[in-house]
């Protein structure tokens, strides 16, 4: 019988550090090569069936080794990437990432701290990043904040604090199953689905989220909002929150945030802003008028992995009332007791401010990126993307075969191909097929949009690699592919 001390002990470290070092250097070189020359590659390509099949194989029981694992990555993962690193990726709202951001993620994983709290460098780096972000967005210095996975979690955290602070009873203890008036909140009908998801997960019920109509500029209708609040009060409900948009996901519209802040103050409501990507417009002196009023919000949710180009995942919630933020989440069982000295020291741990206890070191890539470029550069990049969107809208305007489907207040252009002799439903079919062909050609990745029943292509530029020449090429190719498609459709017997 083997005794414990006779069994050779194992670890997951390499047996040969020289080998992993060489492999690591190769990975860095090859990834930087890819990033340097990604413009010459297709944005996206479909994945062959044999690759899909390999991605369904069962877990290896025995070691393949680090090098084989990397070769599998090169064969099955790398070539079929999303394409978000490419200068002509403009689908949904997706950031580009940066080389230093990638390397910082490596360093963060190398140190592998748990950033839930305690007295080590990582929570202090995160706290410094939060302080920087407050300054950059013009948000009050006394606020608290937390880095989270992204805008969805940032909205969840902000709305959780809103519910806690404005329910009018101890919602943590009693929950929503107690006998209290229904809590209701308001947001425009352009609001991102993550707000509804948060409302559902907070137990409020999606019926409690009142979707308010928008005006021609896609901003919440103030009169309709006020009427809805009055109506809910008359019905005995408890309005508790208004959600304002700083950059709607559809067209990039900004609600009138100052007026929403006024109404919230007058009505005693929490004011939350979803600024997932649009909040970053505050970084540009030329655009910061758009976010005016955001600094008055009780909470603001935004992403760094979209318009700050930080690698996924990085989002942030800022909360004006630090006490309310802390009180919403803190729970300190014995095993998490905060000490006054030693590693476990710290009055407030970051895990007291959100859902996660164990937390990764996502702050490092933000901290290093802001040191690398300085905050001003990010404002310039945001402004450049907005100018590029305006440029694209002009190209569309000038092309007889194309039309803009919506105003372009920010960095999003919604366009479609139009052709004489096709009715609206045929045009919709054409544009839906056109989008797929654009993807499959590898030329560019826009996403879909339907505005007032018209289907089109949506280009959202949160991409620091895009140039005007990319937009020229895109328009040329869309017109070319659109013409071919229109000719095919007209040749078809009806
Ligand atoms: C992307 C987005 C979200 C969700 O953010 P994730 O980072 O994807 O979780 C919320 N609101 C708006 C306006 C967005 O664009």
Structural class comes to alpha/beta
Mean pLDDT score, rounded?
Answer: 96
Percentage of residues in DSSP E strands: 5-15%
Low-confidence stretches: none
The helix/strand order is HHHHHEHHEHEHEHEEEHHHEEHEEH
General form: globular
The major pleated sheet works out as: 7 strands, mixed
What separation lies between the terminal Cα atoms?
A: 82 Å
Helix proportion of residues, in percent? 40-55%
Strand segment count: 11
Question: Largest sheet, order of strands side by side?
Answer: 1-7-6-5-4-2-3
Bound molecules: pyridoxal-5'-phosphate
How many helices in DSSP terms?
Answer: 15
Radius of gyration: 25 Å
Notes on the structure:
The chain has helices spanning 17-37, 49-54, 66-77, 99-111, 121-137, 151-166, 171-174, 193-201, 222-234, 257-267, 322-329, 363-373, 375-398, 424-441, 468-491; strands at residues 144-148, 183-188, 209-212, 238-245, 270-274, 299-303, 315-319, 402-404, 412-417, 447-451, 454-460. It has 494 residues and is of the alpha/beta class. The protein has a 7-stranded mixed beta sheet with strand order 1-7-6-5-4-2-3, sandwiched between helices. The protein has a 4-stranded antiparallel beta sheet with strand order 8-9-11-10. Strand 10 and strand 11 form a beta hairpin. Helix 4 packs across helix 12 (363-373). It is globular, with a radius of gyration of 25 Å. It starts with 16 loop residues before the first helix and ends with a helix. Bound molecules: pyridoxal-5'-phosphate.
